[in-house]
């Protein structure tokens, strides 16, 4: 991953679980357990969780993150995932179609 991608994702790591750092995330992407999505100056990392694709990190401009979410949803549908999840802030106002499930937003595909 580039320094530009990390510049928007690093703030997300401040509130992330222990052990969730740059090297672990890059290893997940390299192994195929996670995917990096970018648009403009924004970025997101989605983790493969069985039949769910979980967006665990995202940062940048809201409108660009909305574009990334559409890219991730299209990818998830093409790959046969049944649900798309977002772990983190409550994005329901900016990304319609999700239901609040504790701190996890879930959207059936």
Which SSEs are present, and which pair or pack?
Layout: H1 3-13, H2 22-31, E1 34-39, E2 42-49, E3 52-59, H3 62-78, E4 83-87, E5 99-101, E6 104-108
Parallel strand pairs: 3-4
Antiparallel strand pairs: 1-2, 2-3, 4-6, 5-6
Question: How would you describe what is shown here?
Answer:
This protein has 109 residues and is an alpha+beta fold. It has one domain: Gcn5-related N-acetyltransferase (GNAT) (Aminopeptidase), CATH 3.40.630. Helices cover 35% and strands 32% of the residues. It has helices at residues 3-13, 22-31, 62-78; strands spanning 34-39, 42-49, 52-59, 83-87, 99-101, 104-108. A 6-stranded mixed beta sheet has the order 1-2-3-4-6-5. A hairpin with a 2-residue loop joins strand 1 and strand 2 (42-49). The longest helix has 17 residues, at 62-78. The chain is globular. The mean pLDDT is 86.
| CATH top level assignment | Alpha Beta
| SSE order, one letter for each helix or strand | HHEEEHEEE
Helix content: 25-40%
Q: Major β-sheet, in short? A: 6 strands, mixed
Record the strand order, biggest sheet: 1-2-3-4-6-5
CATH fold topology: Aminopeptidase
What is the correct CATH architecture? Answer: 3-Layer(aba) Sandwich
**Number of DSSP strands?**
6
Give Rg in angstroms.
Answer: 13 Å
**Structural shape:** globular
Q: In the CATH hierarchy, what is the superfamily? A: Gcn5-related N-acetyltransferase (GNAT)
Domain module tally:
1
Low-pLDDT ranges = none
Distance between the termini: 28 Å
The proportion of strand residues reads 25-35%
Mean pLDDT: 86
The class by helix and strand makeup works out as alpha+beta
Tally of DSSP helical segments: 3
């Amino acid at each position: 991953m580039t320094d530009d991608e990390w510049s928007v994702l690093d703030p997300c790591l401040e509130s992330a679980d222990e052990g969730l750092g740059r090297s672990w995330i890059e290893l997940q992407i390299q192994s195929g357990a996670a995917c990096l999505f970018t648009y403009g100056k924004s970025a997101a990392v989605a983790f493969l969780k069985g039949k769910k694709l979980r967006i665990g990190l995202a940062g940048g401009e809201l409108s660009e993150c909305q574009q990334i979410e559409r890219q991730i949803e299209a990818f998830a549908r093409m790959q046969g995932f049944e649900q798309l999840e977002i772990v983190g802030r409550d994005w329901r106002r900016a990304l319609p179609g999700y239901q609040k499930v504790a701190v996890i937003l879930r959207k059936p595909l």
